[in-house]
Amino acid sequence: MEIIHKKKREIELPLEIVVENFLDLDHVNFVHKKCYSYCNILRRSKNIMLLDVGVKPLTPFPYTVHYTMFHEFISPNKIVHFSKQNGKKKYVKSIVEFNEERGKTSIIHTHKIDIPFYLIPLKHVIIKLVDRWSNILWKEDSEIMKDRKKVVSKGFLDGPHCGKWLLINGKPKWIFNKIK
Ligand SMILES: [Fe+2]
């Protein structure tokens, strides 16, 4: 049985900043320690990434579910990813759609999860857990997206080519390379 978690969010930032944040997955190991045990980018080309990720659905409980994820950016405003748990046949499908209006970007994020018949009685609990997990990620992402906007507006170029994530006093921070 397929269950669906769909959520619309808005943020007062331009679409480019929001999309960049969703494509810069180098930040996951620094910013999203609560929700991910690890995120390894195995292969990256222009629009496609292959990743190994450890998801912590019951965070702060450290139980980790291991997924291999195919992540594709469909220009200009869509991301799809397919994640498969080790040893399982079914994929978790995820679609993220971005739209900008008057400087505000809306994000519609849909997760489609196939559950076995014996978990059907727990489907509302599973959707609640996905919602809780996704809200934690959104809160963390909202903060770093605002930081991205600040540094970009000061003349830095955005993107993984122009800086790196560092932990400073235990807090993740994106440090831009010096402008030459
Ligand atoms: Fe993020």
Give structural notes:
- The protein has helices at residues 15-23, 28-31, 123-153, and strands at 2-11, 36-44, 48-55, 65-74, 78-85, 91-101, 104-114, 163-168, 171-176.
- With 180 residues, it is of the alpha+beta class.
- It has a single domain (2-176), classed as Alpha-D-Glucose-1,6-Bisphosphate, Chain A, domain 4 (2-Layer Sandwich).
- The protein has a seven-stranded antiparallel sheet, with helices on one face.
- Strand 8 (163-168) and strand 9 (171-176) form a beta hairpin.
- The radius of gyration is 17 Å and the shape is globular.
- The protein starts with a strand and ends with a strand.
- The mean pLDDT is 90.
CATH superfamily caption: START domain
Q: Largest beta sheet: what is the strand line-up?
A: 1-7-6-5-4-3-2
Percent range for helical residues?
10-25%
- Text of the CATH class: Alpha Beta
* Largest sheet report: 7 strands, antiparallel
Ions, cofactors, ligands: which are bound? Answer: fe (ii) ion
Structural class: alpha+beta
Shape verdict: globular
The second-level CATH architecture is: 2-Layer Sandwich
